[in-house]
Specification:
- The chain is built from twelve helices and 13 strands.
- The protein has 421 residues and is an alpha/beta fold.
- Strand 3, helix 5 (130-150) and strand 4 form a beta-alpha-beta unit.
- It is globular and about 55 Å long.
């Protein structure tokens, strides 16, 4: 094969790989069914009524919808928002799949919200020993996924835990309180980490058995603390945990400037865990500050529809600079008080993607499609540069290469596709 033919083959390989490289973009709409039941009126940006939100979102370039799953929401102290039991999720999940969208299933492994400060064991599991919990999490995960499959709601991505930076299934809130029992910290006892990782392995085993095509996500929200992120995922690597994607939360009003996220992504990529990365939760307000805001970004991105859109555009531009990032999901995207007749009519959360007063889609919703668009944020293919050996190199699927590549092929360096001949 002559040199011209070799280059032609490599260019065709680039087209094939680029075409097949999947990017996931969408949002968490776990309360959609309840909003619909309460009469929420969804409209496009021009005020045209949206009869069915899911196929409409697909038309706007979304391809993935995230839904949380709680063990027994009847035990929650937040009955307004925590309603996602298995029957609810199966029904919504089937609608998502029938609309031609991918489903990200977010196991909370709790009766209520699970986040870094709340990883409470479900009431029905409270009396179980650790060995029994290992069995339970496997059985529960396996049963849920089997039922999802039967219902026509097979997930494409699965989070085995939600914001689990400090572990999960700590025990009940009443029993544990402020005690650090079963919580994992950088300096935590090895037994805590061993217990936590065993739980994750059992959950992951069920995922591989029931949904072998699904990608498993391990989710941390420690974006502003890269040292904690690195410690966490080093432990996952050392334990040989079987998963596919590093999931992150990034909320500017809690976590800080976009550069904070950029630093976290760079350090994760430099560690070369061999995993893709997704921002599985993000958001920004369109009218006023989110309650509890700890970082005021409004001087750069005003609390307005345009400010929210610009933040979204700049977030996407940042993510496109990182080859290993393949997903972006907006949290509580469906929030919309317009027309609601029940307990969702308060409109307290103005970081969703619909105006709570008019019901109209906000410009940021339309902006999200640009993450998964044909524009990769990379320049065209160039031939090897004389000084390219000093750069950081990645394969086309985002894996870091140790030094300048020696094999023929197309690689990414300095945000360019470079042909090594």
């Amino acid at each position: 094969m002559n040199r011209f033919h070799s280059i032609l083959v490599l260019m065709l390989m680039l087209c094939a790989v680029t075409t097949s490289a999947q990017k996931y973009v969408g949002g968490d709409i776990s309360l959609l069914t309840k909003y619909e039941d309460q009469g929420a009126q969804y409209e496009d940006v021009n005020g045209n009524a949206i009869s069915d939100l899911l196929p409409w979102l697909k038309q706007q370039g979304w391809n993935t919808i995230r839904v949380r799953l709680m063990v027994n929401p009847a035990n929650t102290d937040d009955p307004k928002s925590v309603i996602q039991d298995l029957d609810y999720v199966k029904a919504l999940g089937k609608r998502i799949k029938d609309a031609g969208l991918m489903l990200m299933l977010d196991f909370h492994y709790s009766d209520t919200w699970a986040d870094p400060g709340k990883q409470w064991t479900p009431a029905e599991w409270a009396s179980l020993s650790d060995d029994q919990l290992y069995e339970k999490i496997y059985d529960y995960t396996s049963n849920c996924l089997e039922q999802m499959n039967t219902a026509g709601a097979t997930p494409d991505l699965i989070q085995t835990g939600n914001e689990i930076s400090y572990g999960m299934l700590w025990g009940t809130e009443t029993a544990v309180g402020n005690n650090q029992t079963n919580r994992c910290y950088t300096n935590s006892a090895a037994a805590n980490w061993n217990r936590f990782i065993t739980l994750l392995k059992q959950a992951g085993k069920a995922c591989r058995e029931k949904c072998p095509q699904a990608k498993i996500i391990i989710h941390s929200e420690r974006t502003p603390k890269p040292n904690v992120l690195i410690d966490f995922f080093d432990r996952m690597k050392n334990a040989d945990l079987d998963y596919d994607i590093i999931g992150l939360s990034y909320y500017p009003y809690f976590h800080g400037q976009l550069s904070v996220l950029g630093t976290a992504l760079t350090q994760l990529e430099q560690k070369d865990y061999g995993k893709q990365i997704q921002v599985v939760e993000s958001g920004y307000p369109s009218k006023w500050a989110v309650q509890g805001t700890t970082y005021d970004y409004s001087a750069t991105y005003p609390y307005s529809a345009n400010g929210q859109k610009q933040l979204t555009a700049d977030l996407i531009a940042l993510l496109k600079q990182h080859p290993q990032v393949n997903g972006l999901s907006w949290w509580y995207a469906e929030a919309n008080a317009k027309g609601c007749t029940g307990d969702l009519n308060t409109g307290w959360y103005n970081a969703g993607l619909f105006d709570n007063e008019t019901g109209r889609a906000l410009p940021a919703l339309y902006e999200l499609k640009n993450f998964a668009g044909s524009d990769t944020g990379l320049n065209g293919v160039t031939t090897d540069q004389p000084d390219a050996g000093q750069q950081t190199w990645y394969t086309l699927d985002g894996r870091r290469v140790d030094g300048k590549p020696t094999a023929q092929g197309i690689f990414i360096s300095n945000h360019q596709k470079i042909l090594i001949k």
